[in-house]
Structures are given as structure tokens and as C-alpha cells.
Specification:
Helix content is 84%, strand content 0%. The chain has 401 residues and is an all-alpha fold. The protein is globular. The mean pLDDT is 82. InterPro entries: MFS, MFS_trans_sf, Proton-linked_MCT. GO terms for molecular function: transmembrane transporter activity.
Length: 401
């Protein structure tokens, strides 16, 4: 990749962020693997257990405005160091939890730390180092972080078998302090102000004039797809078990998902940037309802589960790229961050609501309840993408052909 060859300093930053983001995202996937053990130990229903992830995303959303000022004043490195120190006690609180209140308190700590360290902080750090080249660097990082579930679901299962879910929480707290914190403190770069050819800091361009209805459609597409992707990822193992798979078999199929998602994210690089976010979204989004129909009609047949994992993994992986690039069809790079910040609240709310809602449908109505809702939302997402395709600015439309 060109951006790796152009700045050797950027390679080191990407290695730091690849490791820390894998650990950060991988460890918070704890309920996806040990949700039943958590529920049995704490006397909580499965939907209540997954509500811990909802508390995390709501907390991340509420902390975002305050952290925006901290990132601007102190830089990503210092903020991410503080966020790591805040996250580690969250797992310690989970270790001591004997009732739901302390369980949710642990997720509040993880949400406060995650708002500083997960994704947003990483993208800001890359921008501090690469400036306008951060877009490609972010794409490269997405390829790596997509492996978090494939690596950490089996890892969580292994640690849980040896130490129980409580001991696993202590292991993850130690990983944050022994691995992530030193990498941020001693390896991650200090902030670098990016300037133009005249040595002046880049200034934001005036916002492009697009209809509010178009921006509303963009918000709907991103939020609805996030609802499906975050929800299905959280309940995937339980969903496959509800389809009749043995626990070990469900874990094996579920662990394949991350590898397939990462492979699909590489399509943007293989395509040489010829596709914009809307075109990628249309192709990827169409695969999601097809995958769900196959699973709903198969009654748990192994071939159908494999087909579902392949189609859903490819579609959701490519849609992750689309979610990050659809606003670029209508906004230039200077306004991209502002647009994404406006999308952050509904995006976080969808991420928070989806896991417990789908877990509740799974508990009450079986796999058909969860799949039915996600199928309807996925179909609606494709229809809205078609509408957005017709509203492309002329220059974006020409670039996409």
C-alpha cells in the first residue's frame, strides 16, 4: 500500500493501534461468549446481560462531546492513555459483581474508557500523523480490527474454561494495563499538527449544501445497518445455538465471521477506490437479507449455516466500509468529521438498543423473531441506498461509474 511506503512512522502507529484496538474491541465482546454463565451467576436474564453492551455504547455517546475538546487540547495519545486507565477498573468491577447494579457499573467504566480509546481515538491519532493520508490508513486499520471477534471469542472461551468468567475479567484488565497502556505511553507518537505547503494549519471548508432529507437518509442507512450488524454480532453464538447447533459448533462458525468480514473489507482496496460508499453499500447490503432468508428456511442445516456465515460475513464486512464512506459521497474531507459527529448519537443508540432487543426476541420467539426483524431492516436499508444513489452529486456519480 502506498501510504505504508510513504511514511515509515505511520507503520509503527498502525502496529500500535492494531494491537490495542484488537484488545479493546475483543475484550468487550465478553457477553457474546459467556453470556449464559454471567446470567446464571448474577441471576439475570440473557437480554439483561446483553444490556451491559448497551450501557457501554450509551456511555460512549454521552462522553463524546466532552472528549472532543480533550482530543483537541491534549492529543490522542494522552487521551487514550487516560481512557485505558479508566477502562481497566471496569473489568475489576465486573469481577466483584454479585448483582446487576455492580454489573452495569462495570460497563459504565468500560464505556467511559472506550469513548477515549476505541475507533474514534485511533482515527484521530492516525489523522495527527498522516493528515490527509489518514483515510487510507483508517481503511488499513479496519482490515485488522475486523479480526477481533475471531481472535477473542476463542480466547474468551479458553480463559473462561480455565479461570471462569470472573478470572477472565481480571486477565483482560491486566492486558489493558500491561500491553495497551505501555504502547500508548512509550511507542505511540506525540501529536503532530498537520500543515499545508505554506506551513499553515489546514482550515475547514464551508459545509456543502445538501438537502436535510438527504442527510436524513444517510443517517437512516448508517443507523439501521449498525443496528443489524451490532445486534447480530452480539447474539450470533446464541442465534446459531437456537438453530440447533452444539455450543462448540456454534463457536466455531461464529469465529469464522471475523475472518470473512475482514476479507470483504479488502474489496475497497482491490477495487482501487472505483466504488463509492453507496455502490459498496448496495452490493453488500443485498447480501444480508439473502443470508437471513437462507438461515430462516433451512431449519439449522449445516450447509445453510455455512452459507449464512459466508454471505452475512461478506455483506456486513463490506457494509462497515460503506458506513464510513457514504457521507464522503455528499461531503468533502473537511466536513466529513462534522457529518460523522452528527451521526454519532443515533449510531450509538442503535448499537446500544440492538443487542438486548434481539436477545429478547431470541428468548421469546426463537431465532425467527430476531431474524425477522433484522431481515425487514436490511431490506429497508437497501431501498434507502437506492434512493441515495439517485441523489448523488454529479461529480460523485461520475466517479462511481
Amino acid at each position: 500500500m502506498r501510504f505504508l511506503k510513504s511514511d515509515s512512522r505511520l507503520i509503527g502507529v498502525l502496529l500500535v493501534l492494531a494491537i490495542t484496538q484488537l484488545i479493546g474491541w475483543g475484550t468487550i465482546g465478553l457477553p457474546a461468549v459467556v453470556g449464559r454463565d454471567l446470567g446464571a451467576d448474577l441471576g439475570m436474564s440473557l437480554p439483561a446481560v446483553f444490556a451491559g453492551s448497551s450501557v457501554l455504547y450509551v456511555t460512549m455517546g454521552l462522553c463524546a462531546p466532552w472528549l472532543a475538546k480533550a482530543f483537541a487540547r491534549h492529543g490522542a495519545r494522552k487521551v487514550m492513555m487516560v481512557g485505558t486507565v479508566v477502562s481497566a477498573p471496569g473489568y475489576v468491577v465486573l469481577f466483584f459483581a454479585r448483582e446487576p447494579i455492580l454489573y452495569f457499573a462495570g460497563w459504565i467504566f468500560l464505556g467511559m474508557g472506550g469513548s477515549a480509546t476505541l475507533s474514534t481515538g485511533a482515527y484521530i491519532m492516525l489523522n495527527e500523523v498522516a493528515g490527509r493520508g489518514a483515510k487510507n490508513a483508517i481503511g488499513g486499520l479496519m482490515l485488522v480490527t475486523g479480526l477481533s471477534s475471531s481472535i477473542f471469542w476463542p480466547t474468551t472461551s479458553f480463559f473462561s474454561d480455565w479461570f471462569g468468567w470472573r478470572g477472565t475479567c481480571l486477565v483482560y484488565a491486566a492486558m489493558l494495563l500491561a500491553i495497551n497502556l505501555p504502547l500508548y505511553a512509550f511507542v505511540a507518537p506525540r501529536r503532530k499538527i498537520v500543515t499545508d505547503n505554506r506551513g499553515e494549519a489546514f482550515k475547514a471548508a464551508p459545509p456543502p449544501a445538501i438537502p436535510r432529507s438527504t442527510f436524513g437518509l444517510v443517517v437512516c442507512v448508517i443507523t439501521m445497518n449498525a443496528f443489524v450488524n451490532f445486534g447480530i454480532s452480539a447474539i450470533l453464538i446464541e442465534l446459531l445455538r437456537a438453530e440447533g447447533l452444539a455450543p462448540a459448533q456454534a463457536l466455531a462458525f461464529g469465529s469464522m465471521l471475523g475472518v470473512i468480514q475482514v476479507s470483504a473489507r479488502g474489496l475497497d482496496f482491490l477495487g482501487g477506490g472505483r466504488w463509492d460508499g453507496i455502490t459498496t453499500g448496495l452490493v453488500a447490503g443485498t447480501a444480508l437479507p439473502i443470508a437471513m432468508v437462507v438461515l430462516m428456511l433451512s431449519e439449522g442445516a449445516t450447509w445453510a449455516v455455512a452459507t449464512f456465515i459466508l454471505l452475512y460475513g461478506a455483506g456486513s464486512g463490506a457494509m462497515a466500509v460503506a458506513r464510513a464512506t457514504i457521507p464522503l459521497v455528499f461531503y468533502d474531507q473537511a466536513e466529513f468529521a462534522k457529518a460523522m459527529s452528527m451521526i454519532a448519537l443515533p449510531l450509538n443508540l442503535a448499537s446500544a438498543i440492538s443487542p438486548p432487543l434481539l436477545a429478547g426476541l431470541l428468548t421469546q420467539f426463537g431465532s425467527r423473531g430476531a431474524l425477522g426483524l433484522t431481515l425487514a431492516i436490511s431490506c429497508a436499508t437497501v431501498l434507502i441506498l437506492v434512493l441515495l444513489g439517485r441523489r448523488r452529486p454529479r461529480l460523485a456519480a461520475a466517479a462511481a461509474t
